[in-house]
Amino acid sequence: MSPRVPTEPTQEEQRLLAAWRTFFEANCKADFAALASIDDSVWGFEIQWEQLEKHEGLGLAFMSNMSTCLASGTIVLE
After folding, report:
1. Where are the alpha helices (DSSP H) in 1-78?
2. 3-class SS at 37?
3. Which residue in 25, 44, 46, 55 is a FRET match for 35, CA 20 to 30 A apart?
């Protein structure tokens, strides 16, 4: 029998996911509202470093492990 591997996010991953959710809610509402008028399935928007740095440790998480931080943000967007 193979060893059990947890499938739930760790506490740090949960914190990062929650931080991204509140970041998007606080800073990106206008960008999301504009998506209703876009027919393309591919879109993007800019995130200001100053906003990211000030929000619940996202700046530190981004600088510490960029790929993990961005992956968490992508999960929240999906």
Report:
1. 11-27, 29-34, 49-54, 58-64, 66-77
2. helix
3. 55
